[in-house]
Amino acid sequence: MDKTKLDINNPHHQLLIGTLSMFVDDFGYTTRELFELMNDSQKQLWSGLVEMGKEKR
Predict the structure, then answer these.
(1) CA nearest 4: which of 16, 18, 22, 20?
(2) 28 backbone φψ class: left, alpha, beta (φ>0; ψ -120 to 50)
(3) How far apart are CA 24 and CA 15, in angstroms?
């Protein structure tokens, strides 16, 4: 299975979908705002997540 493709039956992916849905349903984000937040999060979290991955190896 390709972990980089969305699988709605995967419980980890379901957690991601549920979290993103909450931003729209509960917190009032528009789709555009949510995707801008995700893009900015990717930029800011990249180095920290890379470090976490290195520590696991």
Answers:
(1) 16
(2) left
(3) 15
Which amino acid makes up residue 22? Answer: M
Distance CA 57, CA 18 (A): 29
- Residue 19 corresponds to which tokens in the numbers above? 């979290």
Check: CB of residue 48 under 8 Å from CB of residue 54.
no
One digit per residue, the tens of pLDDT, for the chain of length 57 reads 799 999 999 999 999 999 999 999 999 999 999 999 999 999 999 999 999 999 988
